[in-house]
């Protein structure tokens, strides 16, 4: 979509003197409101970057694209931390050997700096024949209990004598979940220049969330959308946000519930727009990340 000379002039005027630095030192050339000087309150800067697969071993700089956007911190600001746990039945056999495995892993942790490995640490626990025999006997007995309880005879016996097998339930940790972030804004244009800024801010988010064709002559393969680096101007008592993908952009151009427009360089622009943005981080949060302020 091309812009007219008058539109471009309005965009440039709205962007003049709007270089706002966030906590990372990045500067923004799109901002709302236009008279926001960045010296009071808190704000967020959104910067598009080329997609890269997160790699804990890579410290290479991310390639920025597009124009950075600065917006005030919205009225509602939340960070959710979620981890996924499952549950399983260890059974008598699993319960019988879990202590040995835990001891072996502890030994592995103690020896890993001296080329120790987990398998060898487990084997080292059973060096003497007595220990091996005892472990084998315990495991076989437990396996027999597990096996018998799953047969019809086992069920009959359980009902007849009033006892039941302990399944030895346990919680199994799976992984942390990706954090999700939502930002809602009411953008009210006070003049034509601010209206153009709002238009370009929304366009910047839409450009960043959508894929493109990897080959302009072939519509069978997409190139991944961009990602977003999000920084608070003052994150010290808030939280840091990792690189995100943008999953949803919702725009209500009649933010007051009715079509309200004003004249803008011979055209008409909506007076009030509701903008909702939904992001998801590309890396899960770990204890190390929490220590870094996430």
Could you describe the 3D structure shown?
- With 294 residues, this protein is an alpha+beta fold.
- The protein contains seven helices and 15 strands.
- The chain has helices spanning 5-15, 91-111, 118-124, 129-149, 152-161, 192-209, 287-291; strands spanning 20-21, 27-28, 30-31, 43-49, 69-72, 83-89, 169-176, 180-188, 212-215, 218-223, 227-232, 244-252, 261-264, 267-270, 272-281.
- A four-stranded mixed sheet has the order 3-5-4-11, with helices on one face. The chain has a three-stranded antiparallel sheet with strand order 8-15-12, covered by helices on one side.
- The chain is elongated.
- The two termini are 38 Å apart.
- The model is unreliable at 1-20 and 127-133 (pLDDT under 50).
In short:
The chain is an alpha+beta fold. The chain has seven helices and 15 strands. The strands form six sheets. It has a four-stranded mixed sheet with strand order 3-5-4-11, with helices on one face. It has a three-stranded antiparallel sheet with strand order 8-15-12, covered by helices on one side.
Q: How much helicity do the residues have?
A: 25-40%
Q: Which assembly state applies to the chains in this document?
A: single chain
Strand order of the largest sheet: 3-5-4-11
Q: State which percent range the strand residues make up.
A: 25-35%
- Overall mean pLDDT: 77
DSSP summary, beta strand count: 15
The ordered string of helix (H) and strand (E) elements is HEEEEEEHHHHEEHEEEEEEEH
- The low-confidence parts are 1-20, 127-133
Structural class, from secondary structure content? alpha+beta
The termini sit apart by: 38 Å
Specify the overall morphology. elongated
Count of separate DSSP helical elements:
7
Radius of gyration: 30 Å
Biggest β-sheet description: 4 strands, mixed
């Amino acid at each position: 979509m091309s812009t007219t000379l008058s539109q471009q002039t309005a965009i440039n005027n709205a962007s003049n003197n709007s270089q706002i630095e966030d906590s990372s030192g990045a500067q923004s050339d799109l901002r709302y409101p236009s008279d926001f000087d960045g010296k009071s309150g808190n704000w967020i800067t959104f910067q598009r970057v080329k997609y890269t697969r997160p790699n804990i071993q890579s410290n290479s700089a991310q390639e920025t694209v597009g124009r950075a956007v600065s917006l005030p911190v919205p009225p509602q600001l939340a960070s959710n931390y979620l981890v996924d746990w499952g549950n399983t039945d260890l059974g008598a056999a699993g319960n019988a050997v879990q202590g040995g495995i835990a001891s072996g892993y502890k030994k592995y942790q103690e020896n890993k700096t001296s080329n120790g490995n987990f398998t060898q640490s487990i084997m080292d626990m059973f060096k003497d024949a007595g220990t091996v025999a005892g472990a084998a006997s315990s495991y076989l007995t437990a396996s027999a209990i597990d096996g018998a309880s799953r047969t019809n005879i086992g069920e009959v016996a359980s009902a007849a004598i009033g006892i039941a097998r302990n399944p030895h339930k346990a919680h199994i940790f799976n992984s942390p979940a990706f954090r999700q972030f939502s930002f809602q804004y009411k953008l009210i244009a006070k003049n034509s220049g601010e209206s153009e800024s709002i238009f370009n801010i929304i366009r910047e988010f839409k450009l960043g969330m959508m894929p493109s064709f990897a080959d302009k002559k072939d519509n069978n393969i997409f190139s991944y959308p961009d990602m977003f680096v999000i920084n608070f101007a003052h994150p010290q008592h808030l939280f840091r946000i990792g690189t995100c993908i943008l999953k949803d952009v919702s725009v209500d151009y009649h933010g007051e519930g009715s079509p309200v427009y004003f004249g803008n360089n011979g055209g008409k622009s909506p007076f009030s727009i509701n903008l909702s943005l939904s992001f998801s981080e590309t890396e899960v949060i770990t204890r190390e990340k929490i220590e870094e302020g996430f």
